[in-house]
């Protein structure tokens, strides 16, 4: 099928090819990042500790500090992994919602959430939390590792911080454009 025919079919169905490609791209990147998280979780306790110590030594050398306990490094790593997952999944979900105005949340007859952005944030929150829970569950089966509710809570800190930042940026973006968020009542 030629590019022209593809564009014509997309125009008939009111599909935005730009958002379709963005959605596919960001879902692929999101899934690849989940695979990276799975890889880190699949390391046994010795590999994981070695990697944490290597990062701790790099930080000590770069910033001329004396960090002796890698638990802070591990907490920051956990939180950062899921903060990045949150950003990627939010952009993927947001792009998916914009592929077609006929199939977007705005056209849904039942509105459980107040706006498109609220829907994206809530679904991103759940997506990231579920991935965090599965990550910890997976660690139950890795030699020398264990799943921890505390790690899920640490992941949640990164998730929530990013979602708050997204919400603030979205609000500032709308204000600078002189627009307000479309709210369904």
Question: Biggest sheet: strands, sense, closure?
Answer: none
How many H/I helices?
6
Summed over residues and divided by their number, the pLDDT gives a mean of 87
Question: In terms of per-residue confidence, which ranges show pLDDT below 50 for 5 or more consecutive residues?
Answer: none
Q: Compute the gyration radius: what is it?
A: 20 Å
How would the global form be characterised? elongated
> How many structural domains?
1
Q: Give the beta-strand count.
A: 0
Which strand-content bin applies to the residues? under 5%
How far the N terminus sits from the C terminus, by CA atoms, comes to 43 Å
The SSE string, one letter per element, is HHHHHH
Helix content: over 70%
Q: Helices and strands: which structural class?
A: mainly alpha
Describe it for me?
The chain has 185 residues and is mainly α. It has one domain. It has helices spanning 3-12, 17-41, 45-63, 71-97, 116-139, 149-176. The chain is elongated. The protein starts with a helix and ends in a 9-residue tail after the last helix.
SSE arrangement:
Layout (H helix, E strand, L loop, with lengths): L2 H10 L4 H25 L3 H19 L7 H27 L18 H24 L9 H28 L9
Helix pairs in contact: 2-4, 2-5, 4-5, 4-6, 5-6
Which tags fit this structure?
mainly alpha, 185 residues
Short description:
With 185 residues, this protein is mainly alpha-helical. The chain has helices at residues 3-12, 17-41, 45-63, 71-97, 116-139, 149-176. The radius of gyration is 20 Å and the shape is elongated.
